[in-house]
Amino acid sequence: MSGDGVGASARRVGGYGRVTGHQEYLADITLTDMLHVKLVTLDCARARIISIDKTAAEQVSGVRLIMTAEDLPHPMPRFGPQFQDRPVLATGETKYHGEPIAAVAAETKDAAEAAAKLVRVDHEVLVDGVFSVSRALDPTAPLVQDPDLRPDDPLANTNILREHHFGWGDVDSQEADLVVENTYEFPMVTHFAIEPHGFMAAPDGDGIAIWSTIQHPYLLQKTIAKLLDLPLAKVRVFAPDPGGAFGGKQNPKLEPLVAYMSLRTGRPVRLILTLDETFQAVRRASTEIRVRTGLNSDGTLVFEDFESNFLIGAYVDIADRVVTKGNYLAAGPYRVPAVRIIARGILSHTTPSTAFRGFGIPQVTWARESNLDEGARALGIDRLEIRLRNLAEQGEEFVPGDTPADGDWQQAVRRAAELLGWDEPLPAGRGRGIALGLKSGPTTGLSYSTVRLLGDGSVLIYSGTSDMGQGARTVFAQIASQELGVPLDRISVIMGDSTVVPYDQQTSASRSSVLMGTAVLRACQDIQAKVRTMAARLDGVDESEVSVEKGMVYLPGREATVTETLVTGLGPLGGELVGNGEMRKDKDLEHPLGGSALFFEFNATAVELEVDPGTGEITITKHMTVSDVGLAMNPLQVTGQDEGAAIMGLGHTLMEHYIFDEEGRIRNLGAIDYRIPTSLDLPLELRSDSIENADGPGPYGVKGISEGALLAVSPAVGSAVTEATGLIIRDLPLTPQRVWEAMMERV
Could you give the CA distance from residue 408 to residue 513 in angstroms, rounded to a whole number? Predict the structure, then answer.
């Protein structure tokens, strides 16, 4: 068991299959008699659908179904995790570039693609689309959604979905020595998971089976059951491990469509999106955020005043939750006497935005931390010092009435500065920056786990969590290894089938190690209690004289392993011991987010860089990221998550953004025209470190960590660019062209 327990960089459970290609992703699954699906779309964002002619397409050999809005129930079925606004297929009008109008099911993929091209959609392009915050808020702009979809909503005749107000104190009555006010823009970016989205459906007796690259299988189950008027027990969801997700695969997208097509044909159907189509299916919300920061001359914060506008797209998906959770902690990890936050979700004729690693926090952090830097420079105060001076201390209630600071965050800040060499002489032509990010972990949660200790001492763990690369399987196996004394190679983790694994609310918000990890731990402890009873019976002693810990059973005068006790206790009939565990955080209806944070993800990011004066190109020479993790249950996986998040942050900071034309068409679909960081773009030195004080709510004091290193990358880089060049750029990404043009304007 050595090297397998908690705190060890144990080998990745399932890692061999991932690196050798043996792992079966959704696109690798084939079903007997399966039909292939191709979507029919228009090359414009907004168009009125006049008619659809399927005649030529139906003549293609192998075509079995061409589904349009007319083939679906009336009124059009709609769905969504927050608002029931997304139609199964576009009806009457397309709302964004790439919205499906029809879908072809054929015997082969080639036949489906050929037929899709022959479907004739008579349409009128509506050039007056809403593609920006300013246009969306213009009273003369067209409405993105029909007001009938928002009954009893006072904002239904506007493009504002919701306006949220948070904060405390009286901002207007505060007197500050310095007020810094600016507006910051964050781009529209896509998730770019290596595995595109995929969906399959098949009749399953008197119900239906769905296969999906989804993070929330049980949400999908509820969605399909509601649309098809089926009991949950008649909807079976298979969720193979996704090949990356980053939030983009949280919620149902095209699963309802393939479900209807499967039931109509009576056959299994499969739809695998291309990378281009995936770009048109999911993205992060772009933002315009105005922030006013009030400071005293000594650098202490007096007030923060935010007005955040999130451009969320044509349908809500989970975007309203992104707006609320992303803005509730807009003032960050600092003690601020007065805070006012106005946050809006703005509808637009663009791809619906959804969850994205960081869940709205990177956008707000870019604005807050950059504005704080401008205040520090104006006051002549070191940018590190101004943060330390205002940073909440452990146990301090920095948001009145809410979860106190759950870590010694100064440790992370000082460590990041130390690793970077903040106080060392700065090489010529370079700049340094430091920024802090804070994200609230899950505000609600419910996870169940079942663990089976089999007759030979091997273990099966059942979990509804989706392992999309974050290493959940490994962590759960390590917990069982620690508690039951079983090596990892004798432990299997079962996921991805709603008829087999118990319920898990969702896989998001860096919750898995804390919530599902606790459920697994409690299931193991349930088994330990049964082993304790078994051992007492075998030795004829009272249970109070027996203890079970870390795979060992301690009895009066002797000790044995859990496995030895199990084999003896089960006897010749064999059998197994079954443990069940639950972790629950109930909803709080009085809280603006439905609940306080179970834990916080805190990160300090510090960078050093240089800017080429001739091209505007930025080279990151040092990138240090330090997160408060509670406990690194698997240090190697923590480092991998931290470094991955940091590099993803460099993507939206330096290069990533959608490019639209005047008709709202995305012009840089796919891997060639949409830039993400490659090995050539990595920092010359990238280092991840962790602060471990075992002060988290999860097993052994763990906190979630998968998003922290992404949160503060942009303002750290932006601050360093300002120091290196003297330029202040408030719009992302900091592309060479944008930086070069700013330098030329100064000349």
Answer: 21
Give the closest residue to 491 by CA, choosing from 148, 49, 11: 11
Domain annotation covers residue 646: yes
Q: Does 530 lie in the same domain as 390?
A: no
Same domain, 196 and 230: yes
Report the C-alpha gap between 312 and 283 in whole angstroms. 9
50-54: Cβ within 8 A, 24+ apart: 50/122, 50/123, 50/124, 51/121, 51/122, 52/101, 52/102, 52/119, 52/120, 52/121, 52/122, 53/119, 53/120, 53/121, 53/122, 54/102, 54/119
Residue where a domain stops, chosen among 585, 618, 635: 585
Amino acid at 663: E
Longest CA–CA separation in the chain, Å = 89
Would you say residue 284 lies in a domain?
no
The tens digit of pLDDT for each residue in 273-305 reads 999 999 999 999 999 999 999 999 999 999 999
Of the candidates 277, 643, 707, 723, the residue annotated as catalytic is 707
- Statement to judge: residues 661 and 676 lie in one domain: yes
Q: In this structure, what token pair is assigned to residue 195?
A: 């595995």
8: three-class secondary structure by DSSP: coil
- Residue 707 is among the residues annotated as catalytic for this protein: yes
Name which of 50, 38, 40 is nearest 125 in CA terms.
Answer: 50
Place of tokens 């091997």: 458
User: Residue 419: inside a domain, yes or no?
Assistant: yes
Question: Tell me, what CATH number does 401's domain have?
Answer: 3.30.365.10
Give residue 84's domain range. Answer: 31-127+191-279
Question: 533 and 473 in one domain?
Answer: yes
Residue 463 shares a structural domain with residue 415: no
Which tokens hold the place of 490? 């004798």
Is-above-0.90 flag for pTM?
Answer: yes
Q: Which of 240, 255, 279 is the last residue of a domain?
A: 279
Do 548 and 479 share a structural domain?
yes
CB 453 within 8 A of CB 579: yes
Q: Across the 747 residues of the chain, what is the mean pLDDT of every consecutive 10-residue run?
A: 76 84 91 97 97 98 98 97 97 97 98 98 96 96 96 96 98 98 97 94 97 95 98 96 91 97 98 96 97 98 98 97 98 98 98 96 98 98 98 98 97 98 94 98 94 97 89 93 95 94 85 93 97 96 95 95 95 95 94 95 98 96 97 92 96 97 94 94 97 96 94 98 97 97 89
The answer to whether position 610 is within a domain reads yes
Q: How far is CA 589 from CA 329, 459, 484, in A?
A: 18, 39, 39
